[in-house]
Amino acid sequence: MSLTVPQLQSGLTSDAACRLFDSLEPVTADFMIGQWHGSEAPTGHPLDGLLAVSGWYGKRFDGPDEVHPLLFGTPGDLYPVNPGAVPMGLLNSLGTRMPRPKIPGVTTAFKAVKTTRYRARLRRVDYRGTVSAAMVYDQLPIIDHFRRLDDDAVLGAMDLRDSPRPYFFLLERD
């Protein structure tokens, strides 16, 4: 199964996303170094749509131990946010009951929890039978696993504790 980034952004079932993810090649930590723009691959997960309305931009990997897992803002005005200040458990439990229109000022509100400290690390992790680079959050029970779509794009699977299935997202290299 081979899908393009726009096709994945249009959505697919959770089972199809898992099959695609499992078919993709693993990546190394070195492959992930750099800044990446993120988008969602909707699968019906309770978190679908929340990153888009929040103003999430993507992630920045400066080195294996130097990762900004949440970048917000717009190009030229990007800032890292402390994921420990984001109520992921609440967002996951509220899930599909949350409104999805973009909320004015939400991106600005995240400036209150911006940080200069790195809040995650890249590690090789076995997930779904394949060892690949994964981003391990320092403060949250979350691991983002990555698989290669092409030289400049990866499919991510967020493994969030107490979530029965992964939340899928895309990263494209800036």
UniProtKB/TrEMBL annotation:
<dbReference type="InterPro" id="IPR025951">
    <property type="entry name" value="GXWXG_dom"/>
</dbReference>
<dbReference type="InterPro" id="IPR025568">
    <property type="entry name" value="DUF4334"/>
</dbReference>
<feature type="domain" description="GXWXG">
    <location>
        <begin position="20"/>
        <end position="73"/>
    </location>
</feature>
<feature type="domain" description="DUF4334">
    <location>
        <begin position="119"/>
        <end position="173"/>
    </location>
</feature>
<dbReference type="Pfam" id="PF14231">
    <property type="entry name" value="GXWXG"/>
</dbReference>
<dbReference type="Pfam" id="PF14232">
    <property type="entry name" value="DUF4334"/>
</dbReference>
<protein>
    <recommendedName>
        <fullName>DUF4334 domain-containing protein</fullName>
    </recommendedName>
</protein>
